[in-house]
Specification:
9 strands, IclR family transcriptional regulator, six-stranded antiparallel β-sheet
Length: 267
Amino acid sequence: MASPTESDTAGRDIVGAVVKACRLLEHFDTSHPVWTLNDLTTASRMNKTTVHRLMTTMIHAGWVDRTSEGSYRIAMPVFEIGSSALTQLDIRGAAQPYLSEIAEKFGDTAYLMVPADEGAVCIDRHEGSNPLVVAGISIGSVLPYHATAGPMAMLAFSARIRDRWLTDDLPAFTDRTPTAPDELLTRLEQIRSQGYALSNSDYLSGVAAVGAPILGRNGVVVASISVGGRAETFEGDALREKVATVLASAASLSRVAEALPASGHTQ
């Protein structure tokens, strides 16, 4: 009796349903990020019941989400795994799906900022359906570390930034801007303890934000991700949900950042 060939053995080890699920995922890309059941069935040339069952399974596993209209879209774990595999991917590219999700979920504006000697630099922003127009905070804007949530999250987690930034002559932008070093140190200790920064009218009146640091190798601050909007929408259950979402996004991006080449910033 002939011994089984390598292809025969591989064939027995392959799970057909997993292969089909992978084929379905291959249809999602930047040009077509959302699919209806009917369209995905047509494009994949699979049985409609099979497509429905496979997509339902992937939703249960957390790999696929349903939109409010009932269509399918890729969930965050897929982006996280893909980003981690591409170690040369810059943090801005890795953060885009997270920024988009935050903006869509809350209708506010999501920001990605990176540290620089002169302040926190906004390198990307995604606007939601009802964003507050925040004058002066756009891509390329440089913000002070002692005001707004994203910059303060980086300040709290970077001794290097604190050593350069904490002085006795910090400017006040509103009557809520913390400028005294002792006051700032107390607030930064709280931010480190809870893992996120919360700001309310400390840079622009009526504007609140939640931000968390993105940490790379050895805990080095790589960036921050935040969401900002009208102060009255950052209260109660709405605030708690925004905190949870920002923290989860920052944690996922930190795992991605650990795989990126080391930056020039040090703790």
